[in-house]
Hints:
The longest helix has 13 residues, at 78-90. The chain is elongated. α7 (78-90) runs antiparallel to α8 (116-124). Helix content is 46%, strand content 22%. The strands form 2 sheets. Strands 2-5-4-3 form a 4-stranded mixed sheet, sandwiched between helices. A two-stranded antiparallel sheet has the order 1-6. The protein has a domain at 14-122. By secondary structure, the protein is α+β, with helices and mostly antiparallel strands.
Amino acid sequence: xxxxxxxxxxxxxxxxxxxxxxxxxxxxxxxxxxxxxxxxxxxxxxxxxxxxxxxxxxxxxxxxxxxxxxxxxxxxxxxxxxxxxxxxxxxxxxxxxxxxxxxxxxxxxxxxxxxxxxxxxxxxxxxxxxxxxxxxxxxxxxxxxxxxxxxxxxxxxxxxxxxxxxxxx
Length: 169
């Protein structure tokens, strides 16, 4: 047996103020907006092999920024940084250090997770997120079945009409 106990909506402003997206995507956000580059656990040998400059040298020269700092340094919007990040990716100027941990050479500076600011903006602008509080008996429905059948696929357009995501499309 499953039941929807409550439902509501979060505004982009509330998501921004309470940093819900930053918390949800913490492993990505920590490198893009929260931590300064000198606090990141960058593998120096991988950085040097990719970019031809030592990690500490890049730091000492003031060439390393998280995504938030890069928008300020370059005087560009998050959308413009995202476009430059895409160009760096196309040019082979990105490296992945681990899950959610990327560095790219953008406009002569090294930027961590340059894609995040634009992604974050999709949740913190005029967007709204619908939510439901649900309960179910795990003896009748496993977590896997709840996610797959009751909740439905991540893309609501692909979700069955009787799933929660199908109901909100």
